[in-house]
Specification:
heterodimer; A: mainly alpha; 80% helix; 0% strand; B: mainly alpha; 2 domains; 12 helices
Chain lengths: 260, 280
């Protein structure tokens, strides 16, 4: 314990006097730490905290926490430091490192359904823009009013189109980034809408519009069904808790009667 | 005036004074609208509600605890819940009313546009037609005034979008903004589609409302019936044994727990039912 305290005080003094800097250490070795960064980490961070968040800062926080956990564990077991304790320190620091990622991923999964619901409404507003603009132009104009979760993906999509990629690939990349219901189908439709000649656009647009309306309707019905399901669940919980509670009292009373 | 009448007047006056002093402004606005719609309970209905709640709570709690003092406390708590229930009910009625007004506003604006071919003229047509009620009526007037003042509809649209955050208003405004800026190129079909979307939304919202009403009714029935499960316990144990058990503090505490939990479930279910009327 004393060793731990002395170690912590020494580390604090060194850090406070800026003799050592954990931030500088992380920054200097950023390229090595980046190997540890999950490919979808940036996406999950933006999904939770929005576009303006400093992803690198959050990532260095992860690294710092993992290193601190490692150092603390080593200090705690410094008297009986052996290979197993060393491995345990690595496992714990890896767990601390992964914790933020797991929290972010769980947040995304919890909200995936909400994102699922957002797509048809976003497509509806896009459809209105496509009445007057070409599909890529409408996409770039829609960014301002798009749900925040779609914004980074849309920017990427626009950047790829602006760079001259006229294939379906940027659209598919967007659909893969947001693997929500019907995203593949709708992005393919959108791509074809961008391809068609201006004379045929109106017909294609009408088809797109009908598909979006059907999608919107499906999402709405799903939402209502879930709400009714929630009410049903509440009724069931009430039945179980109150009914079960009353029966438990009955059992308890019977036990008490036998004791009288 | 006999003594009973003056007591009644005194109580209603005191309630009014307390209401004016403590009720939040937004609540007063909502209540005024509900009153205008003729859906506000009359004093007689409120008194009936108070009597039903207090007598019901008194009777149920007496069945549980066989203690007049405890029953009085429960009756008072039940009476205290009435303003909250009224608040939830007002909120639901107000949201349903606003949604109805929004669908009237969007449908009529699109239809007016078909004849006037100008968004502001369509708004004027809707305003003058008398189909809208307050607060939407004043807001549409404000939109028109802003459009004339600025020579542009952007600010009017932003104002309405911020005040009534519905997808249908946003989509309609976006389309009209484009039409105003870029010209009405083949907008007829798009507007027709938008009307169909609104029809579909309205149909869904009304169907959902009916479904939820059915669920809500059975939820409340179950909740009330669960209170009476204690009668089953008494029937199985015998009333004398039950009274003997009530001498044990643990049993009394558990019984309070059952009553309070059931009441909380009922209240949270009521809140869930009255919030989010499904307009979008």
């Amino acid at each position: 314990m004393e060793v731990l305290l002395v170690g912590a005080i020494i580390l604090f003094i060194l850090e406070y006097d800026q003799i050592i800097s954990s931030n500088k250490f992380i920054k200097d070795n950023e390229q090595y730490f980046n190997i540890l960064k999950e490919t979808d980490y940036v996406f999950y961070v933006r999904a939770k905290h929005g576009e303006d968040v400093d992803v690198e800062k959050l990532f260095s926080l992860r690294i710092r926490n993992a290193l601190v956990a490692f150092v603390i564990f080593i200090f705690v077991f410094i008297a009986q430091l052996n290979f197993i304790n060393f491995i345990a320190a690595i496992v714990i620091s890896y767990f601390v490192y992964k914790m933020q990622y797991i929290t972010l991923r769980n947040h995304y999964k919890r909200n995936l359904h909400e994102i699922d619901m957002m797509l048809p409404y976003y497509l509806k507003s896009l459809e209105i823009l496509i009445q007057h603009y070409t599909a890529p132009m409408a996409l770039s104009r829609s960014i301002q009013t798009a749900p925040p979760i779609f914004k980074p993906g849309l920017r990427e999509l626009i950047a790829k189109i602006d760079a001259g990629d006229s294939s379906i690939e940027p659209y598919m990349a967007f659909a893969k980034e947001y693997p929500v219901r019907d995203s593949m189908r709708m992005m393919r439709l959108l791509y074809r809408l961008g391809l068609g000649a201006q004379e045929n656009k109106q017909e294609q647009l009408l088809m797109f519009s009908r598909t979006v309306s059907a999608l919107q309707n499906k999402a709405r019905e799903q939402r209502y069904k879930e709400r009714l399901g929630n009410m049903e669940k509440r009724t069931l919980i009430m039945l179980v808790v109150t009914g079960g509670g009353t029966l438990a009292i009955l059992l308890l009373s019977m036990l008490m009667i036998f004791q009288f | 005036m006999n003594k009973g009448e003056s007591v009644y007047k005194f109580i209603t006056y005191q309630v009014e004074v307390a209401y004016e002093k403590y009720a939040p402004y937004s609540f007063k606005v909502i209540r005024e609208k509900v009153k205008d719609l003729g859906l506000e309970y009359s004093a007689r209905q409120y008194i009936t509600q108070i009597v039903i709640f207090s007598v019901g709570a008194f009777a149920i709690s007496y069945l549980y605890f066989y203690n007049i003092f405890v029953s009085i406390v429960y009756a008072l708590i039940a009476m205290g819940i009435i303003p909250y229930l009224a608040y939830l009910r007002y909120k639901r009625i107000y949201s349903e009313f606003i949604f109805e007004q929004i669908q009237v506003y969007t449908t009529n604006t699109i239809m007016e546009y078909a004849t006037t071919e100008s968004f502001v003229k369509a708004l004027e047509g809707v305003y003058a037609s008398g189909v809208l009620e307050e607060p939407l009526l004043s807001d549409v007037r404000y939109m028109i005034d802003l459009a004339y003042k600025n020579g542009d509809v952007t600010e009017s649209i932003d104002y309405m979008n911020s005040k009534y955050d519905y997808y249908i208003t946003r989509n309609m405004h976006q389309l009209f903004l484009q039409i105003t800026r870029e010209g009405a190129r083949e907008a007829g079909q798009a507007l027709e589609n938008m009307l169909l979307d609104i029809d579909m939304l309205v149909e869904n919202v009304y169907r959902d409302r009916m479904d939820r009403q059915v669920f809500h009714r059975s939820f409340v029935q179950y909740g009330l019936m669960l209170y009476l499960m204690i009668m089953l316990v008494q029937y199985l144990l015998g009333i004398d044994t039950y009274l003997k058990l009530l001498e044990q503090n643990v049993v009394v505490l558990l019984l309070h727990g059952v009553v309070l939990f059931n009441s909380l479930f009922l209240l949270s279910g009521e809140k869930y039912y009255n919030e989010n009327v499904g307009g979008e």
